[in-house]
């Protein structure tokens, strides 16, 4: 305590400018204004969140629709593949048959070429 017996606080030492910067004590009016501001902010946030949720729901609906379309398309492709499968086997066997025929023809050509060479050799041999 100071020698004169008066107790001073830090508020007593503040200048007038510093004192005016301090928050005023809460009154029912200032509390009401603050509460109103908070309620408006909450309402705006709820509206914003509601709009975002709505947009998200629309987006999810579009995704579900696209997913459904994609699933349908995949099913169609799978059905087409299954329908083509027997045809694919048939086509494969036809290709194998064709390959065998080509090999036979190649063999016959080789035989024919061999005969031709042989004939040429024989002819040349007779001419000499």
Describe this structure in words.
- This protein has helices spanning 10-13, 16-21, 28-127.
- The protein contains three helices and no strands.
- It is mainly alpha-helical.
- The model has no long low-confidence stretch (mean pLDDT 72).
- It is rod-shaped.
- The chain has one domain.
List keywords for this structure.
mainly alpha, 3 helices, 86% helix, rod-shaped
Question: How is the secondary structure organized here?
Answer:
Blueprint: H1 10-13, H2 16-21, H3 28-127
Quick overview of this protein structure:
The chain has three helices and no strands. It is mainly α.
Question: Tell me about the biggest sheet?
Answer: none
Percent helix: over 70%
Counted beta strands: 0
Number of helices: 3
First-residue to last-residue Cα separation: 148 Å
Overall pLDDT score: 72
Quaternary structure annotation: single chain
Structural class category: mainly alpha
Contiguous runs where pLDDT drops below 50 for at least 5 residues: none
> Total domains, how many?
1
């Amino acid at each position: 305590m100071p020698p004169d017996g008066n107790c001073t606080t830090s508020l007593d030492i503040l200048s007038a400018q510093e004192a005016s910067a301090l928050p005023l004590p809460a009154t029912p009016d200032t509390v009401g204004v603050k509460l109103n501001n908070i309620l408006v902010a909450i309402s705006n946030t709820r509206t914003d969140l509601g709009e975002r949720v709505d947009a998200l729901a629309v987006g999810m609906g579009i995704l579900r629709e696209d997913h459904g379309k994609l699933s349908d398309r995949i099913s169609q492709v799978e059905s087409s593949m299954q329908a083509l499968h027997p045809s694919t086997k048939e086509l494969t066997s036809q290709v194998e048959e064709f390959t065998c025929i080509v090999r036979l023809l190649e063999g016959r050509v080789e035989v024919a070429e061999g005969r031709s060479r042989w004939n040429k050799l024989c002819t040349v041999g007779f001419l000499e």
